[in-house]
Amino acid sequence: MLQLRLLMVPVFTGMAAFTLAIFNSVDAINIESLSVPGTAVGSTGITPDFLIKTLVDRMEEIENRASSRADHAPVIVQDDGGSAAILGQYFGLTPLLHVVQTSFGLIPNSFSGEIVVEGKEMELVMRGTDAAHHESLIRTRVAVGDVESLVDKTAYEMMRVVEPTLLAAYQFKKDYLTRDFTGTEEVIRRGLSSEDVRPHKWLMNLWGIVLYQQGDFAGAVEKFRLSAEIDPTFTSPLLNAGVVLLRQGKREEAIAKFQQVTQVWRRGGYTDVLAAAYTEWGFALALMGRTKDAEVKFRQAIAADPTFSGVYSAWGEVLSANGNADEAQKMTAKALKLTPVERVYTDNLVGRIKELPAAAVAISG
After folding, report:
1. 5-161: which CATH number, 1.20.1250.20, 3.30.160.100, 3.90.380.10, 3.40.190.10?
2. Residues ≥6 apart with Cβ < 8 Å to 331
3. Which of residues 139 and 361 earns the better pLDDT score?
4. Is 107 exposed, middle or buried (0-12, 13-18, 19+ CB in 10 A)?
5. Exposure class string for 245-264: b at 16+ Cβ within 10 A, else e
């Protein structure tokens, strides 16, 4: 989680704030300062503290709606003038803070900015620097007083700089409702053009999911292949490729992908991914008429993660197809009981994003 924190300045919290700056700032976003001229405060009612708070709230909202499991950064916010800097000066710690933050790169994304009012428009200019000393510039211009648009657009662009994976997942969930994924693909393309390659495997995987949603199965499998090529231990593209191959009727190829997931999965990984692989493997075997072998895989899925609802719905389908209506009903009831509390991520083709609209099915067929 982003773990947004607004550092306060009472003297008794000095050492706590210093500890936070040292130990909780790894991969953090540090909003050092935002300045608003007095004339702007008078004409817009915006104060530095209010602007920082609303920016942080909006970034946290994007993160919460994204529900991506890509590694992402906490955010540390310093009020105008820098709370940690003030505390550091009070305790004589400023040089150490400076060394830790810059030389050791514990705060790789640092931002500062100001509002400029020109006539009927105002512009928020944000300057960012990461641990590799790459600089970014965000300029957001809106009508004077349109604080909501100012915050929305600036937070969106800051997330693009800092966490393109989260922004892409957030945009995907918005686009999913309209079936127009133009915005998601734009975020993905810009993210993949970045010199920071760490998010690339996640972005490529999500691109595959987008193509799947559009009915482009061949394109989706290729993106999943490229994602897994970046990181062969990344289970999501292996699982997703298997799902698409299975929908194409390529059962043996699909099973090979599900088997790969179980081979590269390591203790401490996401158990629902492992459960999904065994579930899809079992369903593939059932489609091949190997019902007993399918049941073995379903049991392995439940052992991996008994809260994964997909295994119960899949097993229920197989039981129903084989004439076991009562047992099928019990399995379906278990699935329905778990579904309301199951969190939906955008990493894997399970649950709702596995289901295709009629238009996409027609294209793929």
Report:
1. 3.30.160.100
2. 312, 313, 315, 316, 319
3. 139
4. buried
5. bbbeebbebbbebbebbbee
Q: What pLDDT, in 10s, does the model give residues 206-264?
A: 999 999 999 999 999 999 999 999 999 999 999 999 999 999 999 999 999 999 999 99
Q: Are 279 and 311 in contact (CB under 8 A)?
A: yes
Report whether 299 contacts 312 (CB < 8 A).
Answer: no
Query: 201-364 in CATH: which number?
Result: 1.25.40.10
Residues 36-53: pLDDT tens digits? 877 667 666 778 888 888
pLDDT of 85 over the 60 cut: no
Strand partners, 76: 5, 30
Q: What gap in Å lies between CA 69 and CA 271, rounded to an integer?
A: 13
CA distance 4 to 77: 7
Domain boundaries, the chain: 5-161, 201-364
pTM for this predicted structure: 0.77
